[in-house]
Design brief:
Helix content is 32%, strand content 16%. The protein contains 15 helices and 15 strands. The protein has helices at 20-23, 43-49, 121-127, 138-146, 161-168, 176-185, 204-214, 243-264, 273-278, 301-323, 344-358, 384-391, 420-427, 437-445, 461-466; strands at residues 10-15, 31-35, 38-39, 54-61, 64-71, 80-82, 152-155, 190-196, 220-227, 269-271, 335-340, 362-367, 399-403, 431-434, 451-452.
C-alpha cells in the first residue's frame, strides 16, 4: 500500500544484530509510524508501546506502508537506534529569557547548536537535562503520568512565584510548587537545581526554596545549588557571586543539610564543586552525596577524580615495587596536563604527587578562557584556539594531555570547532584525552586509546565515540 499520510515517524539509524528488530526484518532507513496501534512521537513512545510480548509495527519504506510483527523473547532487546530521539520536532525550545542563560551569553559566530535553548521534558527523562516545565501542554502532563517518565530534572531557581518569574524573565511562568506537587501526586521523582544569582534569588529566597522543596521529599529527592556562571558577553547587568557571598551561602546550605540529615537521613541540598574549589575548601567525601549520581551537573566530579587518583597511586606503587623501577613501559618521558583555571590547583597537587611517585616530570598549564572571559573557568568550556595560543610558546612535555570533556561533541571537536588533531599538529606533540589520572598514566605508558598523533590524517574514531551525548547529534 502506498502511503498518503504526512505523519512523521522515527527513522532507524542502526539495528543491533540478533535483536527483535533484526529478527523481523527491519532495515536502516525504515520509518516507524505506529507501535501496536499507537502513533509514536519519540523513542519513549516506541519503548513504552513495544513493551509487550507481541509487537506489531507500521513502517514506511520507500514510500510504502508496511507491517512488521512478531513475538519478542523475554529479555530480548528491541535493538533500534533512531536518527533523532524525537520524531515530531528536533527538540523543544525554551520560552524563557533567564538573565543567566548560557545560550544567551554566547559570542557571535559560534556553531548553530550553541544557540539552541533546550527545554524539552523528554530529553530531561532520557538524558538528565534540566528543564523549567514552562512549556508543557495538557497532553505532555498526561503522558508524564501515563508513561511514568521518572526521574525528571527541573530548574527551579526560586519557589516564590514572583522571584522565579524574575529568574526566568517570564511573567506568565506557572507556580512551580503546584507543578511539583502534581508530579509528587503521580509518584514522579524530581531532581531540582537552583542557579544562585546575586540580587535575584539569593538571600531569603534561597532558604525559602530549600524549605519549600523539602516539603515534597522524597519525591523531590535533591536540590543542587549552583553558582551563576557569566561570560563576558552577558547582556543583563548581572554579576558573579563574590567570595564573601559564596561563603555565606555555603554556610547556609550546610546548615540546611544538617537539618535534613536529621529529618530525612540525607542531606537533600547539595553544593556543586565550584563552591569548594573557589573557596579552596576540602572536597566532601563520597558519602556526602548520599548515593546520588549528579556529576553531569558538576556535583561530585572532583570527588570522583580524587578517589580515582588514590587507586592510581596504588597502581604506580605496585608497578614500582614489582619492577624495581620508577615506572615501567614508559612511552613518553614527560607530560604536560592542560586544564581550566578552576581545577588547576587540584590537578597541580595530583601532578606533583604523580611526579614524586613515578619520577616522570609532569607539569600543569591552566588555560584562560579568552573567548568567553576569565570568569568561565571550567575545563569543559575551554576553546581549542585558547589552548593552542597559550601553549605554543611554552616548553611542553613529550605528550600533551587535554580534558576529554573539551571535545564532548559527535565529531570530537571543542566549542570553537577546533579538533584535538589540529592541536596536536600545531603544537607538534602527541595529544591524549583524559578524564582522570588513570588516563594520564595510560597516556605516558602508551595504553590510552584516546591518543592523537600530529601525523594522523583524521581524528581517530575512538575519540569521536568517546564524546558524550550532545544536542548536536539531533539538530
Amino acid at each position: 500500500m502506498r502511503l498518503n499520510t504526512t505523519t512523521r515517524g522515527g527513522i532507524i539509524a542502526a539495528i543491533e544484530p540478533e535483536s527483535f528488530a533484526a529478527e523481523i526484518g527491519l532495515q536502516v532507513g525504515d520509518e516507524i509510524i505506529e507501535v501496536n496501534g499507537h502513533l509514536v512521537e519519540d523513542v519513549i513512545d516506541v519503548q513504552f508501546y513495544a513493551a509487550d510480548e507481541w509487537i506489531e509495527l507500521q513502517i514506511r519504506r520507500n514510500g510504502m506502508l508496511l507491517t512488521c510483527k512478531g513475538g519478542r523473547d523475554y529479555n530480548q532487546t528491541l535493538g533500534l537506534e533512531f536518527e533523532h530521539p524525537t520524531f515530531d520536532v528536533d527538540i523543544r525550545r525554551c520560552n524563557n529569557l533567564c538573565p543567566f542563560c548560557f545560550v544567551l551569553q554566547m559570542p557571535n559566530r559560534m556553531r548553530r547548536a550553541l544557540y539552541v535553548k533546550d527545554d524539552d521534558y523528554r530529553y530531561s527523562f532520557l538524558h538528565g537535562h534540566f528543564v523549567t516545565l514552562t512549556n508543557l501542554s495538557d497532553h505532555d502532563w498526561q503522558r508524564i503520568a501515563d508513561q511514568f517518565l521518572s526521574p525528571l530534572y527541573v530548574s527551579v531557581h526560586a519557589t516564590e512565584l514572583q522571584a522565579r518569574r524574575a529568574c526566568l524573565r517570564n511573567p506568565t511562568a506557572p507556580n512551580i510548587m503546584e507543578q511539583l506537587r502534581w508530579l509528587a501526586d503521580h509518584d514522579i521523582e524530581v531532581h531540582t537545581q537552583l542557579v544562585i544569582t546575586p540580587g535575584l534569588n539569593d538571600g531569603p529566597y534561597l532558604g525559602q526554596s530549600i524549605r519549600d522543596l523539602a516539603t515534597l521529599w522524597p519525591h523531590v529527592s535533591s536540590v543542587c545549588v549552583v553558582p551563576v556562571g557569566l561570560t563576558q558577553h552577558h547582556k543583563y547587568d548581572r554579576r558573579p557571586l563574590t567570595k564573601a557571598e559564596m561563603r555565606v551561602i555555603v554556610d547556609e546550605v550546610h546548615g540546611y543539610q544538617q537539618k535534613c540529615l536529621t529529618k530525612f537521613g540525607v542531606r537533600f541540598a547539595y553544593l556543586t564543586d565550584e563552591w569548594y574549589l573557589q573557596l579552596d575548601e576540602p572536597i566532601p567525601p563520597r558519602s556526602y552525596y548520599d548515593g546520588l549520581s549528579l556529576e553531569e551537573n558538576g556535583q561530585g566530579m572532583v570527588r570522583s577524580f580524587l578517589d580515582d587518583w588514590q587507586k592510581v597511586k596504588r597502581e604506580i606503587k605496585r608497578s614500582r615495587e614489582s619492577t624495581n623501577q620508577r615506572t615501567s613501559e614508559l612511552r613518553h618521558a614527560s607530560a604536560t596536563l592542560v586544564t581550566g583555571t578552576l581545577f588547576a590547583p587540584t590537578l597541580t597537587r595530583a601532578a606533583k604527587e604523580f611526579t614524586h611517585l613515578s619520577g616522570l616530570p609532569v607539569d600543569v598549564i591552566p588555560v584562560v578562557n579568552e573567548r568567553l572571559g576569565e570568569t568561565i573557568m571550567v575545563s569543559g568550556l575551554l576553546m581549542g584556539d585558547d589552548v593552542i595560543n597559550q601553549l605554543k610558546a611554552r616548553e611542553l612535555g613529550e605528550v600533551v594531555v587535554l580534558p576529554r570533556i573539551m571535545f564532548d561533541h559527535p565529531q570530537g571537536v571543542a566549542l570553537d570547532d577546533v579538533s584535538p588533531l589540529r592541536i596536536a599538529q600545531l603544537l607538534d606533540r602527541p595529544v591524549a584525552l583524559a578524564d582522570a589520572m588513570g588516563d594520564v598514566l595510560d597516556a605516558v605508558t602508551g595504553r590510552n586509546s584516546l591518543m592523537i598523533l600530529p601525523t594522523d590524517e583524521h581524528i581517530p574514531l575512538d575519540v569521536m565515540k568517546a564524546g558524550g551525548w550532545s544536542i548536536e547529534k539531533y539538530l
